[in-house]
Amino acid sequence: MPGGGTITLDQMFEQGFDAIFIGTGTALAKDLQGIVQATYFLRIATLYNEGKIDRKEVPVNRGDEVLLVGAGNVAMDAARTALRLGASKVTVVYRRLESEITALRAEYEGAVAEGVTFCWQTSPTRFVGKNGVITGLEVTTTEGKTILAANKILLAKGFRPAARIVSTTTGIEVNPAGYVLTKDRPYGMTTRKGVFAGGDVVHQPATVVLAMKEAKLVAKGIEAYVEAKKLLDEC
Questions:
Q1: In 3-state terms, what secondary structure has residue 21?
Q2: Which of the residues 18, 93, 139, 232 has an alpha carbon 20 to 30 A from that of 111?
Q3: Annotated domain spans of the chain
Q4: Which long-range contacts (CB under 8 A, 24 or more apart) does 87-90 make?
Q5: CA 124: distance to chain centroid?
Q6: Cβ distance 190 to 196 under 8 Å?
Q7: Which CATH code fits 35-155?
């Protein structure tokens, strides 16, 4: 809104808008160099170990300080693999207690034995970077907020979408994980008539290619909805 103010969806409809699109994404932006999906890292590491790609293609280098977000089996595998590839330090960040991890106990104990460290009851809040490169992760702990230093962050867990718009607007339903529910007809419309959504806020963090493909489909859905609304208004 001009002047840096805020405006609600209800106010926008009152101003005469026929359709509104929500593309708020997830709570954590991922536009800094050094942030990698753990599954991608493991796939690349496997190709390197098989001799199919060069070492420079692997996103974790010798001496890297690595943070691993998540505590499932993929997280444990990625953490151990990062150490084997020469990372100087690998720390798993998990918002719950050790007893609540989803990884198999054997996987967790194996990670501990290899030197992986753990930060329990630690919730990521935002990435920290400089000149487009990751430098750390701001987290909230039982003692408050702090920044964990890292030059590589591996994501083995998705992030909830930014919920401010959704939580302040009635009629928009979300799934148990907090992602907005949308329809196939008109494509991309939420459970509130005239409000559309797309991208990470609907599909969870994914690739830019998927987001672009979805955006085109949602745009067609909005166009169809607006045209139908105009036709009904004229009748």
A1: strand
A2: 139
A3: 2-27+160-234, 35-155
A4: 87/60, 87/61, 87/62, 87/63, 87/152, 88/62, 88/63, 88/64, 89/65, 89/117, 90/66, 90/115, 90/116, 90/117
A5: 11
A6: yes
A7: 3.50.50.60
DSSP letter at 100 equals G
DSSP 168: T
Model pTM score: 0.61
Q: How far apart are CA 77 and CA 185, in angstroms?
A: 41
Antiparallel, parallel or unpaired: β 65-69 and 20-22 = unpaired
Beta partners for 68?
A: 92, 154
The per-residue pLDDT for range 45-91, each reduced to its tens digit, is 999 999 988 999 899 999 999 999 999 999 999 999 999 999 999 99
- The CATH class that applies to domain 2-27+160-234 reads alpha beta
Q: Where are the beta strands (DSSP E) in 45-174?
A: 65-69, 89-93, 117-119, 123-130, 133-141, 144-149, 152-155
Residue 203 CB-density burial (10 A; 0-12 exposed, 13-18 middle, 19+ buried): middle
Residue whose token pair is 């170990």: 49
Structure letter (DSSP) for residue 11? H
DSSP for 130-154 reads ETTEEEEEEEEETTEEEEEE-SEEE
How many angstroms separate the CA atoms of 233 and 194, rounded? 14
